[in-house]
Amino acid sequence: MNIESALKKDGITVIAPLDSESVNEIAKSVSESLLLAFPNFGFTFESLYKRFSSIKMYMADIPHGLSEASYFYKNNSIYFRDGMGLADLKKFAVHECIHNLQEVTDEKGNLSRLGLCTFKGSKVFGMALNEAAVQLASSNILGSTFENVTYYGINFSTISPNCYPLLCNLISQMAYATGEEVLFDSVLNSSDYFRNKFVALCGENVYNQIANSFDKILELEEKIIILQNKLQSIDLSSSRADSISNKIKELKANIKNTYFSTQELFITTYFSTIFKSLITSSDLDRFRKKLYNFQELAGNTDNYYFFNNFYIAMMEKLDKRFDMLAELDSHSTYLIPRKESTFSKIIKYIQKLLLKREFEIDKK
Questions:
Q1: Cβ distance 343 to 334 under 8 Å?
Q2: pTM here?
Q3: How far apart are CA 218 and CA 211, in angstroms?
Q4: What confidence tens digit (pLDDT) does each residue in 160-206 have?
Q5: In sequence order, what are the residues at sequence separation of 6 or more whose Cβ sits closer than 8 angstroms to the Cβ of residue 36?
């Protein structure tokens, strides 16, 4: 498919090329911001500026619901939504310039890799995973902070509330396990560092399942956009409009279910794997804090208790492990009664909160 056909397929119509001065300003801004955010990844301003300033940039008509900018690797071009000022052009160029930086081609010039996404013939793996990771990196470059939002009936925290918010939350959960620096190294340098570390922690099957869930969520969101655009048509009958609205509700429910099943798979696999490696009381305490702090990233909804129940179950296991370590400690003496462990106190406190919440729900 040639470039014109590809653009037409996405509904993009080119208006005019950006002037060279604007292109250079954008390249300079993105290069400086990327270096400031990631100073230890081996980049130089000169190499980044040279690369980004060679990208062809255009203003274009872009359909409602699509991203504000799109990068096409086949002609090394970025297409921006018409009407943007220079400040917005610089902002939305960050994500697309990272895609340019990610490109890895084979000896025939065919794209073989784009960050976390791999291309093998007609098979593409990890496209949505990479989009989320690039947006996470872009948000860090732009100095964004996490916000609490609600989409599809899910309450969650995300650094990107307006672009891939749900996927950015899930990729942040994965980075919670590997460390963000590991993720960003793979995103910017198109390496297997992140994948290998995540697989070591959770297994290859879990990594593949999560990557496929990302693709599913992105595909469902794209279908919703198409249907929402159809609802804007003045020629729709009321019965047709109702049918489309019901379909949108189904898709949103599917996204919600996919999100929670993905989150639960990660929580169960990651924390259960780490628990097996705990040896010392210090390990137990670090694990407790790691699990407790994860609640800041965990998505939630009405009458959803998975994380709370998992937390209590893990605290009970920690308490037993703590008792076992105490018994093995040759320096321990129990001439005086042993104090109740921190884990036991936490378990009892959470159980009281849950009982109180269930009692209040029953009263309603």
A1: no
A2: 0.88
A3: 11
A4: 999 999 999 999 999 999 999 999 999 999 999 999 999 999 999 99
A5: 141
